[in-house]
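Dear colleague,

As promised, here are the two records you asked about, laid out in our usual form so they can be pasted straight into your sheet.

NAME FIELD: protein one
SEQUENCE, THEN STRUCTURE:
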Amino acid sequence: MHTTASKITMLRMILIPVFLIFLYLDMRYWALAVFIIASASDAVDGYIARHYNQVTNFGKFMDPLADKVLVITAMCYYIEAHQMAAWVVAIVIFREFAVSGLRLIAVEQGRVIAAAKSGKIKTTVTMVALILMLVMPVWAPGFSHTFDWICSILILLTTVYSGIEYFVKNKDVFKDAD
């Protein structure tokens, strides 16, 4: 059964290549609209899933995957456009794999590691920073390079902090791991 929430998650996955097409066609405002819709759909499908008791295993898997793919897609474009350093994106990807691995180990022990507040803050900061990086070259071309670095540093700081917090708060997972 496909719930309303899972349909919204699938829409977000479909919007990712649309976002890229608009970027490569240099249609930044259309890309911006698609990115905002895709980002906002995360909150909408989460609300629907919880409010109408439509939480599914499909949603638990696809929702965070859709978020990660959307963010990493934008960041890869920014690397190519010389707006973000590859090492920043590498750290973001490392954190995502590390936290996902931590969650897998916890699941094997019958535990679920819920999203932490710092993880939600990281996601919000990242989405807002990526949106601003999309429009800054148009709004303030002379300031965009500096602004890109500010956004990159904010993404990096919230990413590293939330990753460390997940591991510190759940270090006991490794005591029980074989």
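NAME FIELD: protein two
SEQUENCE, THEN STRUCTURE:
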Amino acid sequence: MISKKIVLHFSKEIWNKPIVYRLVKDFNLSFNILKASVLPRQESFMVLELSGPKMDFKRGLEYLAEVGVVVEPIEKDIVRDDHKCIHCGACTAVCPTGSLYINRKTMEVLFDSAKCSACELCIKACPPRAMESHFV
């Protein structure tokens, strides 16, 4: 069994196709929508936690590529500019997944991108604007 958080980017030509339905029906995968912006006849995106048997997961990703969906791992989308970060901890107070946390020994704010759900609450909370989103 494999589970990953991914971002699906849809072109304006395929925004209305039953692509996620096919992942469930044809490839035995389950999903949890973490965030989405899907608008008629426009480029759209969807952040999913996708789970299923390893072989089915691989086949599902191949299907997405065949139909023209660009797939990226979630950690590419929310990033921290370490030069801007002042380690104030404001982002840790709003992070629902614990991907932003304070190392109590060094008092530095650390970012575990694998836990990130791309909710973007950290972006709004960060005074020096060190947190950035790359899919907006």
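A couple of things worth noting about protein two: The two ends are 31 Å apart (CA to CA). The chain has two domains: 2-75, 78-133.

Best,
R.
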